[in-house]
Amino acid sequence: MSDIRHSLLRRDALSAAKEVLYHLDIYFSSQLQSTAVPIVDKGTIELVEEFIFHVSKDRNIQLKRMSSMQELQLLEIMCSYFQEQSKDAVRQLIFSALFSPQGGKADDSRMAMMGKLVSMAVAVCRVPILECAASWLQRTHALYCVRLAKVLVDDYCSLVPGSIQTLRQIYTASPRFCCQFITAVTALYDLSSEELIPSSGLLEMVVTWITDDPRLSLITFLNMPISANMPLGSLGITPLVGLVRWCAKSPLSYKRNSKAPVANGHTGKLARESVEEGVDLDPLYSKLHLSVLQILLMLQAHLTEKNLFGRLELLQFEQMVQLVEELGRLVEELNPLNATREIELSLNRLAQVLQVAMASGALLCTREDLRPICSRLPHNNLLQLVMSGPVQQPPHSAFQPGFYPHIHTPPLGYPPRPSTPAAAAHPAHPSFIPGMSFPYRPMR
To answer: Is residue 333 part of a domain?
Structure first.
């Protein structure tokens, strides 16, 4: 490896980077022929960091840096290489060796170059690179995934008007990349502040993708080996959590930000843009909410087919607890008297998602688990109904059979429900009951 390094030091920056890429191709192609699990050794990583990302291990050596033109040429060379490499395994290994974060000084340069490469791949529709990026998004820590998502959003939704159409068309070329991109975008834009609310163009694109094909959000899950374990800190295997957050929080977040004053005394940027563009985003979130319910309804069959029903949480209980807490804080920030409609809409959507998710097996908890959490929210009839459910009372109970116990403590207080065999037999994952008194449809 030292001989290669000394040879590269005599070359110009672009030539050295091209030579490292050529070395990686030979290295991984030979490894795949000799071993089932290729290993990226330390020397190879150091070559990549030194001659592609220009982070030298030797302080006494001044590295030659590429000019902007040379960097563009290198990106074009990478684009051509990944497009022409016929072996997917080699492509994936080289992409990982180049861009997997190592926790060192080169990571910022690594992320910057990958963002430019993936952005270029979107512009010229290089599917092999998009597929490599999809795998990278699946196995990399969420902190880095949202950084890539931010680069693409800036490039195609902010800098050049109309360029979002180029990103929108990627759906037909690489649905797997789109699934992972949605997961990263919903993790980035969590509606916690005005800056973290998706633009109308980005929102419309995501909603269009999902309403056209609800199965898009399940592509990673459907293609994932049953025994696969997600790396610690990685994005979820579906964007469902982020999409549920968008639907439930959007009425309250937009209401809060439309009232938020800024330094010059005007309302927030989001409210001004909505007025200027004449865009009513409520229908988009309503369409998204309907699609989320449809996706949850599809999940039961897929979980059963994979023998994962009751064993895999696609919506984790802790995530739902966090969402309820976020909704509670938003309600506290708003004047309930001036946000009655928004609060009701948010809680209606939350109630529907919880009911359908529990019934489909995507959320592995019972009403008893959720009841004390949801009791912190304002009263909502639909949430009251979903959280209570028809509970069979023991013969000696003071209540009538079929009584719906309140999740909010009434003024006079009810005696606690005793633990009985009937209560213990209550199913952990309730199914839909024909003839229920309320339909499953998005609340408008």
So the answer is: yes
